[in-house]
TrEMBL record:
Gene Ontology CC, one term: membrane
Species annotation: Rugamonas rivuli
Protein name per UniProt: DUF1211 domain-containing protein
GO MF annotation terms: potassium channel activity; proton channel activity
Assigned keywords, A-Z: Ion channel, Ion transport, Membrane, Potassium, Potassium channel, Potassium transport, Transmembrane, Transmembrane helix, Transport
Signal peptide, first to last residue: none
Length: 223
């Protein structure tokens, strides 16, 4: 039987949602590798021909590598956010589904971007990245503003760190589109900057934790 909150909203099990998240991310990460295939009608009867075919897969391989780790990063972000959640409601459920829709679309965007080094392909790929980032940001905002759903409330530092990482990914995705105008085949390399988002978020969390501890110490002295 589904429990009901004080506001009359049904309290949904977060474990069913987490299972759905894990399943969709796992399928999306697996589908990425489908584009890594040799030409079906190519004559690869020599070492040179095989090396040439493998060399031609490099753009797809780069797109696969970036997309795989992007999905891993966003799966970890979802895992961290749901560690605060005790139970879900309709709002949290639909925001999660919004994010899962973008995760499910990423293999298609990755395939287009890997196969066609163009502004349109990069815009599609970056657009899905931005969609993933926005959905993560909205999910964090909802959890932060609804502490009644949580095992323990999300701190302001964690929320702002999530905001910084999400906006950082959006800026990187937008920068990739800009770079694609000059170098369509190399724009994906800008996503390496995503490796800076985790340290940035950790720094923001530490700064807020220190500020909170300082304020509590000052309050204790004044008391």
């Amino acid at each position: 039987m589904t429990d009901v909150s004080a506001e009359g909203q049904p309290q949904l099990s977060k474990h069913r949602i987490e299972a759905l998240i894990d399943g969709i991310f796992a399928v999306a990460m697996t589908l990425l590798v489908i584009e890594l295939r040799l030409p079906e009608h190519a004559h690869l009867d020599s070492e040179a021909a095989l090396r040439g075919a493998l060399y031609g897969l490099i753009p797809n391989l780069i797109s696969w590598l970036i997309s795989f780790f992007v999905l891993a990063i966003f799966w970890i972000a979802n895992h961290r956010l749901f560690s605060y959640v005790r139970h879900a409601d309709q709002g949290l459920l639909w925001l999660t589904i919004l994010g899962l829709a973008s995760a499910a679309l990423l293999p298609f965007a990755s395939a287009v971007n890997g196969q066609y080094a163009s502004i349109t392909g990069q815009a599609l790929y970056s657009g899905v990245m931005i969609w993933l980032s926005v959905s993560t940001l909205l999910l964090a905002r909802y959890i932060h503003r609804h502490p009644g759903l949580c095992v323990h409330p999300m701190s302001l530092g964690v929320y702002r760190a999530t905001m910084a990482r999400s906006f950082g990914v959006m800026l990187i995705a937008a920068l990739a589109v800009v770079i694609s105008y000059a170098a369509p085949g190399n724009a994906n390399f800008v996503f390496v900057l995503m490796s800076l988002m985790r340290p940035l978020g950790a720094r923001i969390e530490r700064r807020h934790a220190l500020a909170k501890a300082k304020a509590e110490a000052e309050a204790a002295v004044q008391a």
